[in-house]
Amino acid sequence: MNRKTFLRLATLTLGLGALALAPFAAQAQSQHDGSAARPLRVILIPADGGTEDGTKKDFMPIFAAISAATGLKFDIKVGQSYGAVMEAQCAGAADIAFYGVASYLPTHKKGCANLLALAINNGQSVYYSGIFARIDAGVTSVKDIKGKTIALGDLNSTSSFAVPVAMMIENGVNPVRDAKAIQLAGSHANVLKALSEGLVDVGGASFESFEKAVNQKAIDPSKIRVVAKSAPLPYPPLAIHPRVAPEVQAKLRDAFENINKLPGISKDQIRGYGGSKVDGYTTKVSEQEMADAAKLFDLVTDQVKTDILKKAGTR
Q1: Among 103, 162, 134, 124, which Cα is nearest to 225's?
Q2: Residues 257 and 179 in one domain
Q3: Do 139 and 229 share a domain, yes or no?
Q4: Are 126 and 61 in contact (CB under 8 A)?
Q5: pLDDT tens, residue by residue, 140-166
Q6: In this predicted model, which residue has the larger pLDDT, 35 or 315?
Q7: Are residues 225 and 250 in the same domain?
Q8: Which of 25, 135, 242, 281 lies 20 to 30 Å from 93 when distance is taken between CA atoms?
Q9: Tens digits of per-residue pLDDT, 107-124?
Q10: Whose CA is closest to 72, among 63, 60, 81, 80?
Q11: Looking at the 3D structure of the chain, how many domains does it have?
Q12: Are 207 and 129 within 8 A, CB to CB?
């Protein structure tokens, strides 16, 4: 993938959000009940570059097991962008959505989403964001990012945008002023691909996505350096629309809490963000913990996002 193709892909990824919302919005009437006629609509962020098969395949066994155990039916889709998933839930076109904290908080604030479940692994529901650099870029610390080219993910992504940008600002690097150029790649996978192919010097992504890319041999870890690792972040939540019937919500919470005990699913099939294996899911999650996490990226204001978007559009 050459630079011109990469830029075109990034532009399309960002621009398709509104178009992607159209079929979801057309379905927006009232929340579904999980019957065969009105299956619960699950919309997932495009963690694997917006493709149906990557992210969808990670979650299909979980929802299939819940369906078998509860009788609830699901219709699972992957949104074209984080914003499209957020808007679909607020339009009433999604009953369940999966996204990061930076996407969940504004959606919850609008009254469109409440916490449903978080993946849990080794007794914790946390994951990490990172700033990565090509070895040959000469970047050994965050301060070295000045004058380099940077790839970031979706504007509403927690770990491929908000947290990497916050870490830069905390270390005295203003990405708008100090970076040579910024590319908005739209997803973790695209950030890592751009980094691997030498289209950029530095990239922001989750460690789960990085490890998945390494395991799939999509990137060569010997050519990439970890520049910074974030503090623990609350795991990307599954969120439910508040208007879903209480009895349906209760069934879902019980099923997620016991997902590792349900028949028809193996331990290897219980997956979370980026396809990483997890021990199970917990519904004992706190809205306050999510709100507290927002402090990690308070520095990434709407103005910062606007300025980055503008710089990314400069050729």
Answers
A1: 134
A2: no
A3: yes
A4: no
A5: 999 999 999 999 999 999 999 999 999
A6: 35
A7: no
A8: 281
A9: 999 999 999 999 999 999
A10: 63
A11: 2
A12: yes
